[in-house]
Amino acid sequence: MATLAETASKLPRKPSSKVTHIPGESGLPVVGFTFQFLRDFPGLINRMVEKHGPVFRYRAVMQDVITLTGPDANEFILKDSDHNFSSKKAWDIILEELFPNGLMLRDFENHKVHRKILQGAFKKPAMQAYVEKMNPRFDKGLSEWPKGNEIMFFDHIKNLLLNAGAELFLGIKMGQEATKVNESFIAAVDASLAVLRLPIPGTTWYRGIKGRRFLEEFIGSLVAEKRRSQDNDFFTQICHSRGENNEELTDQEVIDHMIFLLFAAHDTTTSTLCSLVYRLAKHPEWQEALREEILSLGTDEVTYDDLEKMEKTGLVFRETLRMHPPLPTIPRRAINDCEFQGFKIPKNAAVGVVPLHTHYMEEYWTNPYKFDPERFSPERAEHKKHFYQWVPFGGGHHKCLGLNFAEIQSKVFLFQLLRNYKVEIRSGYEMPTQVVPLAVPKDGFPCTLTPLN
């Protein structure tokens, strides 16, 4: 009898189009609602819900998608108690050749084994070591940013996180080697959005595949050394981690996981920090409250244990991710015929849930369009009405393994930023956001850093 992962792997590459029994629309011939999907994803989802209800279909990016909205839908898809949905098949179309065999591109039994092994790199001793490395890297990086004049925050934080990632994840210092790694990584990420996917020299896809090959060779050349090492970077931790039955990763599996972790951690944290700093600049009273909290720690370098004391920073982190989840929609592929609230979902259908929509539902959130970190305080605890109403990190089997790391990294960055600098934006500025596939500022997010001393 075939395993669940094998069943998923045998599905056609292209999802089923036999979904017309679901209320919805196909839009324009061929392209469907692709332009609306890319330009105004929240508006598209809101219009579909208003017209067709909480379960609907639409066509975008060359496929028909059944979309389920709300916390119950999130639980049905993400918890996936009956093992009806594949993450791998949903993401393969976009990521397979560039980031193959990452944790998000594994399913069921196979995913469980690999997740258990990778958890070793996210345990407390490892996290403590990561925090020690983050402090000087962020402090030095911020000191080199221009002050007193507008900068494009997106460009600066992207570069800072790339440089920090080279050291934190791979254990390599900045220099020509790290620069080449970063260039190759950026080429691979850019290629994940390429429309023309042919290996023609000069194209985005060609550069991406070339970048992937370099990363494989470079990381592969270090695996043996890392297996012998006792360093405290992610690379070494993953090489030493073991599963429940003492399983260890092969060299190729280490390579695939490291490249995918670089991708997953860098892009989502870039998105999150852009949104966090924008909200703090937009709401200076919260910026000042966090600064007071940070200065009350009385230290130049925050420790792992100090992070728990940054309670207001935690509230702002959660509220920012409610309003600006890095991944606004989470795709899956049905591997069996199944049913949700009377709607039949056929095998091989493309299915998606929308954290961004859930995060603004008035049934669960008071004044959802208002920035209100206190809604996550123990006294109000608005996020506890339904276990799947706040899902910026997904949920269930595939809940982001690095969710604690993301909060830690964000807190360390904000600690180093706010204890030294005031962040300001132009009066009346509203950050325009490209929501899909990942939430990032369209204009680079112009802001000004002013030294406090």
Q: What does this protein structure show overall?
A:
The protein is α+β, with helices and mostly antiparallel strands and 453 residues long. It has a domain at 95-170 and 222-325 and 362-451: Orthogonal Bundle (Cytochrome p450), CATH 1.10.630.10. Helices cover 47% and strands 10% of the residues. The chain is built from 17 helices and 12 strands. Strands 1-2-8-5-3 form a 5-stranded mixed sheet. Helix 9 packs across helix 10, helix 10 (204-220) crosses helix 13 and helix 14 runs antiparallel to helix 15 (311-323). The termini are far apart. The mean pLDDT is 94.
Ranges with pLDDT <50 over ≥5 residues? Answer: none
**CATH arch. level architecture of the domain at 95-170 and 222-325 and 362-451:** Orthogonal Bundle
Topology, number of strands: 12
Helical percent range?
A: 40-55%
Helices, strands, pairings?
Layout: H1 4-9, H2 34-39, H3 41-52, E1 55-60, E2 63-68, H4 71-79, E3 85-86, H5 87-95, H6 108-118, H7 124-143, E4 150-152, H8 153-168, H9 176-191, H10 204-220, H11 223-228, H12 234-240, H13 251-282, H14 284-295, H15 311-323, E5 330-334, E6 338-340, E7 343-345, E8 350-353, H16 355-358, H17 403-418, E9 421-424, E10 433-434, E11 440-441, E12 446-451
Parallel strand pairs: 2-8
Antiparallel strand pairs: 1-2, 3-5, 4-12, 5-8, 6-7, 9-12, 10-11
